[in-house]
């Protein structure tokens, strides 16, 4: 058997709200290690928005969100990854406890976070269950099993602290990736091969030092580095570990696409609470997605409330 693990992020560009990076893993037979999971799970999932024939849309989160909104992300993420055995998915707090329990305390220090947003937002739980059953059947037929998910949520105070420490914005990506690499290597017990597929960090082509820092008990060997992909083999962890960084990895790898969707879904549900909090303090305030331009408008509108609440702007505003 082998583990396929996809990693992608959402919210790297905004000035407001959290940054989220997620890893999604599943176990496959050895002969499927290079298989296309969209094809293996074809009865229930699809890639691309053109041919909607009653399947779950699993794709780059930008594509899904543009075509189907938050409801599309919600259906894809919860129908494939969440099961009642994990616990009732009734609130944002439950989602946080499921995907990023280590970051719950950091979120609770945010003035706007309550975890009270009702989930699912747009899809009834009863409507998700048939999709989940179909997905489980397809996985059983293809012998795809043991789905694991983990997210890292970085709020503005930690985001800015990492900038102070590393100087460049990319240090935030490195920080979150290191956490997920360590977590997956520790949690996926046994000797089965680990195959990581990761969306490239901007135009960066070299990742060996980043991997070595994250997996300090290993030795990292570079197999390929370039614009099309960078590939590394890791020794010393008691199993074969490979990492492939490539642009648009979410277009080639199902688990990367699902990680992208999960990151976006988590960030968007967090932003629902972010906007609701500030709308309670500023009448007629238009919500924001937190991206440059509109973030300036939003910050100017809430500045009197920020001061009244005794908050500092650097607690809300990501400097890069």
From the structure above, extract its key features:
seven-stranded mixed β-sheet; globular; 320 residues; 11 helices; alpha/beta
CATH class: Alpha Beta
CATH architecture: 2-Layer Sandwich
The CATH topology assignment is: Nucleotidyltransferase, domain 5
Count of DSSP H/I helices: 11
The total number of structural domains is 1
Distance between the termini: 42 Å
Topology of helices and strands:
Blueprint: E1 2-10, E2 19-28, H1 37-40, E3 45-46, E4 56-57, H2 61-81, H3 92-99, H4 104-108, H5 125-142, E5 145-154, H6 156-166, H7 170-187, E6 193-199, H8 208-214, E7 219-224, E8 230-235, E9 241-246, H9 249-252, H10 254-281, H11 294-308
Helix pairs in contact: 2-5, 2-10, 6-7, 7-8
Structural commentary:
By secondary structure, the chain is α/β, with parallel strands linked by helices. The protein has one domain: Ribonuclease H-like superfamily/Ribonuclease H (Nucleotidyltransferase, domain 5, 2-Layer Sandwich), CATH 3.30.420. 43% of the residues lie in helices and 18% in strands. The protein has eleven helices and nine strands. The radius of gyration is 20 Å and the shape is globular.
In summary, what is this structure?
The protein is of the alpha/beta class and about 325 residues long.
């Amino acid at each position: 058997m082998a583990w396929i693990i996809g990693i992608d992020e959402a919210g790297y560009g905004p000035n407001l709200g959290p940054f989220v990076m997620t890893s999604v893993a599943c176990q496959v037979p050895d002969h499927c290690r290079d298989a296309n999971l969209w094809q293996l799970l074809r009865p229930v999932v699809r890639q691309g928005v053109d041919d909607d024939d009653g399947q779950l849309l699993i794709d780059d989160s930008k594509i899904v969100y543009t075509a189907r909104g938050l409801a599309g992300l919600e259906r894809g993420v919860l129908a494939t990854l969440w099961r009642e055995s994990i616990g009732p998915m009734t609130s944002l707090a439950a989602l946080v406890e499921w995907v990023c329990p280590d970051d719950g305390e950091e979120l609770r220090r945010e003035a706007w976070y309550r975890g009270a947003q009702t989930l699912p937002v747009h899809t009834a739980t009863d409507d998700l269950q048939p999709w989940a059953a179909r997905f489980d059947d397809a996985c059983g037929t293809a012998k795809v099993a043991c789905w694991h998910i983990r997210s890292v949520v970085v709020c503005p105070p930690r985001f800015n602290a990492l900038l102070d420490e590393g100087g460049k914005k990319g240090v935030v990506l490195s920080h979150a990736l290191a956490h997920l690499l360590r977590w997956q290597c520790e949690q996926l017990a046994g000797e089965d091969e680990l195959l990581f597929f990761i969306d490239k960090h901007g135009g960066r082509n070299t990742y060996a030092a980043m991997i070595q820092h994250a997996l300090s008990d290993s030795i990292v060997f570079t197999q390929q580095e370039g614009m099309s992909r960078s590939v590394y083999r890791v020794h010393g962890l008691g199993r074969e570990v490979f990492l492939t960084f490539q642009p648009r990895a979410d277009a080639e790898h199902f688990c990367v696409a699902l990680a992208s969707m999960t990151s976006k879904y988590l960030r968007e549900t967090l932003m629902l609470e972010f906007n609701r909090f500030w709308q309670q303090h500023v009448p007629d305030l238009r919500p924001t997605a937190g991206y440059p331009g509109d973030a300036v408008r939003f910050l100017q509108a809430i500045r009197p409330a920020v001061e009244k609440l005794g908050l500092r702007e650097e607690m809300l505003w990501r400097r890069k």
